[in-house]
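Hi D.,

Good news: the full-assembly prediction came through. Inputs first.
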Amino acid sequence: MRKICLALAAAAALTCALPLAAHHAVSAEFDSGKVVTLKGVVSKVEWVNPHIFVYFDAKDESGKVTTWRLQSLPPMFFKNSGLTKEKLLDGSESTVTAYPAKDGTDGFGFLLKLTYPDGHFYNLGGGTAPAPEPAK
Amino acid sequence: MEFRLAIHAVGAVSVGLAAALMVPVNAFGQAPNYGPPATSYAIEASRYPDAAAKPTPHLADGHPDLNGVWHHFFGGLVAKVGDNSFTLNFGQSVPTAKAGGAPAPQAKPDTDPEYKPQYAAKVKYLNDNQVKEDHTLHCMPPGVPRVGPPQQIVATAKQLVFLYADLTGNHWRVIPVNGHHSTNPEDEATYNGDSVARWDGDTLVVDVTKLTDDTWLADNGFLHSSKLHVTEKLRRVGDTIQYSMTADDPEVLVKPWTITRTLTLQSDTLGEMPPCVDNDAGHYVNSEHHDNVR
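Then the structure:
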């Protein structure tokens, strides 16, 4: 079931197991060399496989609103996170980071992180986060 | 896919690297500082460490009771941070009794099916072009055997229903005990095939024929022909099931291909999987890929 995985960092040879959001590499669609930062409100959520889509109404300094369509991970990845479609749609302002599309499609990106004014966040792109708490 | 779970570091790391270095990486090849990675099977097993030692329940007819939720497609990825924040953890460590405890045992990697030489080029082509060629990436069903072991079983003396909440949709099979394969020549080959079951002692043996050749045995281009014949075996041991699947395809394979899994009885419900919608097809700029979720 698991085969040899590719990695960037040295580690003990452990069997690699958890797959990523299916099929194409994210890099087949999105440019990880650029990060866009958007401020606004989530206006729509498609809670579908293999990727949920978060529609984000981003407001620029002039007040102009552009709706971004942001791809994220499968719904099952959010199990036990407390994050649901309803929670995303609670009308809160947030700051979002995303990778833009490689094919030049405007307003289409891969959602990395949502951060809210009180500091709470949902980090959906992986990366350096604290290790999980050991089981009690 | 179920039988080919893996992670590729994407971005800078080329698919040609055959490094035996394995760490959980995120979608862009960055390795977070998590513990050893684990499968959802291992996570499920770790929640019930004494499962196999439990007594094995039986139905009124004396056969082992296979009822239950035995596996979820996925889980265990959330790392909570404080009360209201979280990070999605692409390499979840199996919970251990204390920090620094031993990681959960890892299952042996699956072998690859062994193809006849005349099929090697086709398998390679399908693998290299899987972003386009793998129909499950476009929300088509994986079928048997690629859908994997049953995630929930509803069992009576006369029939079993196998249920799957899969990335591609919610699939089911109704399998008569001591039934017979259809002899109607008008019956089409299907994604889940024609299945009948019988008991061999305490092992349920499921025989599957009439499988469409539109599916793959597993990820990465592992095609099969319409001659594919699948045998699944399920043996309950306490609150676990030992599952094996053998794919016999004399047209394309040198010999039958077998994989095994250990399933652990879960205490929650299966849950319906949200619908699959192919929103990506028009946006790929290349064929970079990594293995599929299953």
